[in-house]
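ok so for the tutorial part 2 we go from a plain amino acid sequence to predicted structure tokens. step 1 is just haveing the sequence, like this:
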Amino acid sequence: MTHAVLPGRSPAERRAELRRLLATGETLIAPGVTDAAGLRLVEEAGFRVAYLTGAGLANAQYGLPDIGLISQREVADHVQRLASATDLPLIVDADTGYGGPLAVMRTVRLLEQAGAAAVQLEDQVLDKRCGHFDDHRLIPAEEMVAKIRAAVDARGDSGLVLVARTDARSAYGLDEAIRRARLYAKAGADVLFVEAPRTVEEMRTIGRELAGTPLLANIVEGGKTPELSVAELAELGFSIALFANYLMRSMLHAGRQALAHLKAAGETRSRTPHLLPWADRQTLFGLAAYTEVEQRYADG
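step 2 — the prediction. this is what the tokens look like for a chain of 300 residues:
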């Protein structure tokens, strides 16, 4: 895989590409990323979209739990870093939008300017919690509808995709989650995300009751939702299969093993087969492309 010094596709082209992919009817796999290194791995593996996970951002970049402690500006700055390192459409978890309708409008504009292809908003209160935790508190559905309408107005004709997430399954049950999702679609959401259904039958109900709007399923290993395959999710009617923290947790597990070995053995030589080879590392980050451009300018 080769990399250009600058991404080849504009943010508008990436938003159009995401809309094109959603229109195909094929279920997209969206691996979660927390940094540009992970994003490069997602590209190299051949995926067509990536997802900036809010939980992963809090965990990996700030060492914090996913309880709503990351700010609007911190997310926007990180999106800009990631979008400048990829051509992939980037779906961005923007939590609650960081306030009411006016805050949501600013969030949408900031993330759009930073290079997001899609922005996800949820209906929890401002101090939100991971969807697979307990004890969720939600704003009234009417307030979330107002926030979605504000997001629609803020994006204008940019093509930004709006993902509306409801955590009502945990707080009030599946019927209320479906009711809210319908309201959010009517308000202008392009993709619906009913977080943390508990059974395959609940997922089947979501697919049936919300058919006609692209649906996102979030697979959290060890979480509340059944850990279905992409093929199974497609059969149930889901358009996006999100694996938000699979990559981060895999890398953390490998890192823990590597550091335990270093602490016990005092050397790394015997673990060389478990490391990304030096040359592969340089290829992953596009050293050859940068060297070529540098030489071009050096030669006049």
